[in-house]
Predict the structure of FxsB family radical SAM/SPASM domain protein.
Amino acid sequence: MTTRIPPPLTQFVVKMHSRCDLACDHCYVYEHADSSWRARPKVIGDEIVAKAAERIGEHAAAHRLPAVRVVLHGGEPLLAGPDRLRRAAEAFRAALPPGCALDLRIHTNGVLLSRAFCSLFAELDVKVGISLDGDRAANDRHRRFADGRSSHPQVLRAVALLSEPAYRHLFAGLLCTIDVENDPVAVYRALAELRPPAVDFLLPHATWDEPPKRPAGQGPVPYADWLLTVHRLWESDGRPFAVRTFESVHRTLRGFSSLTESLGLEPSDLAVLETDGTFEQADSLKTAYDGAPATGLNVFAHSLDDLARHPGIAARQSGLAGLGAVCRTCPVVRSCGGGLYAHRYRSDDGGGGFDNPSVYCGDLMTLINGIAGKGGSSGAGVPAQGTEPLLPAALTSSQLDELARGYGSADTVRALARSQLALTRAMLAAAWDASGQGRAEAWSLLTSLDASAPAAVDTVLAHPYARAWAARRLAGDLGTGLGPLAALAAAAAVRAGRGDAAAVPVRGGWLHLPTLGRIAVPDGEAVVTGTAEGFTVRAADGSVFTALDEPLWRIRLAGGWTVSLEDTDPLRDSHDHPVSDRLPDSELLNWTGALREAWELLGRDLPPYAEGIRAGLTTVTPLRPGPAGRDVSSAARQAFGAVGIARPATAPTLALLLAHEFQHVKLGAVLDLLDLYDRGDDRLYLAPWRPDPRPLEGLLQGTYAHLAVTEYWGTRVLAYDGLAGGPADRARREFALWRRYTAEAVERLAGSGSLTAPGLRFADGMRTTVAPWLAVPLPPAAEQAADRARRERATA
């Protein structure tokens, strides 16, 4: 049985030139173990580029990819010349299927970058990344010409070109390789002064055979100390640019995906094409041994599916199972991910190959713990790591205004997620206290794990349905017993992998481990033990199980969003509609393709909503289909981060349902922090889109959700401007209907007399958002059709 869909390759490094005009002494291509560059052509041939473009186009079409990234690389890619770069860019863009976007980039040392190159890249929409290690002293330590001359002035000239208004949109950021003998403060300030959109701080490539330098007097973890100094400056400056390393640590500590292959457990989706047409694994492997990146495959004889199945690629896609025993027992493994694969290499017999911790192991642990800044657990109460007060102070004034307008940036949604995690902890504590504190061993295990492996506990408690049990218990539903609490403790023990055991009652033949999946186990009490290798389950009849029968489906989408399809959790029935049974493989494929297409549409048409969705929507629960012609979706009030949806017929409809339901998710989290209305108001209010009157909260929820609906149809109307036909007419009709419904509902809320001061602020924000849409002109036929629909709904 298929347990997961192997992730397709979505990032491609294409070597345009195999030589370089600098002689950087830390370069992994020319200065480390691999010497394959010597036998390769200096420049890639047009026939190789054409075949590579064809392969990428086939792969994108077969896997219904909404986007792929191609990075033109080297050596120094600008040595290939403008004509060859133009032909390559045009070939890759032309080969992609309709609906698949190309993120085309070039990474250069900047020495040859000129206004002519910038104009070419502006024409071809090629983003440009520049290598720069800091101020002149820092940069000249390694990045020099072969004759010893400094490259710093030329690189600054390149950055200045990219900072001009005509080219600023092309500037992808700076890449800085760390040298701990460089002053981190000076390096950070020099880079920050250039106002880059992003900076990648990279550990210098090293292995256990060739370890990184650790200067005397700098302590045992100089790279962590260096990065933590930069992190403090970056935080104090208000995060003026993106830093993937820091952001990845923040994300993985909350259970989300990493933004870089050097951290986290997300599968690698990267392939490299050399100038001779051979496929290789990640370039960083060149630091391990001569020939380490080789695959034996080439662009003419092998497809990208062939490459994805290569054992070396697969080894970097197996997550926790692909790590050595030491890493699997580490409390920060979910963030560290074992570090960069190449940095684990050791050639000696005692630990040969890559089955080792990273040579930067101590630095990574110190860095992650330093960024997390976590202390111990909170005594007898619920584990309280990473919590924030359940007060309006959890949101800044500007974040509250973002949400009032219907939006919410990634940082704002993350603030909501932190407050929701704190609330989940408090509700679990209350439910446990109300139970008479039976099954104390499960609670004791959770608090113990929170002190030693807090990320494991955070990840499990952030699961949307962890709170569902507590909410039911506190509402008086005792039918599930304390089993779900024991299951949470068991799942945390498995994630921690330190040998803890939890007894979990089994009913109905299934043992469910939240965030992981379920195992078919005989009824009775099963003992779950988290081990370095994974877990063992000893059933009541003595049988032992070591693998999930039905793992949680996880789908990785473009832009770093990973979403789970939850079809195993027994508490997922928190929605107002029946949930689907376990998805067969064919339906899983349908969901995967539909989600990829819907996510591409959201990013294109609703970017202000998509940013928050990526930050906070972790789970989609498949629902059973409704009556023919009716779309079914739901957001459960006690399941932050989840929406329930019956897969609709089209990806655009799925995009609309995701945006609509996540509005309910966000507003529910806000209502847990703030009173937006007088809860004593028991009157019923007529919602324009429903024939039956609703409580005030129902009207508020519907209005907030329909802000996204209005913008969805509004963007489609703008896209269809001047066009005729059925889809265009429908978009205009729906837009006319929903903008009027939403505007009318906002005024009904504002005039209720029951909104608090924050509630009136929300009403003002929603009014501000919908007002520009009211001014968009529409043909009379669209308005007339909307009037008919309003009358029909009013009498339904």
User: Anything to note?
Assistant: Residues 204-261+320-369 form one domain. The chain has a mean pLDDT of 86. Residues 72 and 305 are 21 Å apart (CA to CA).
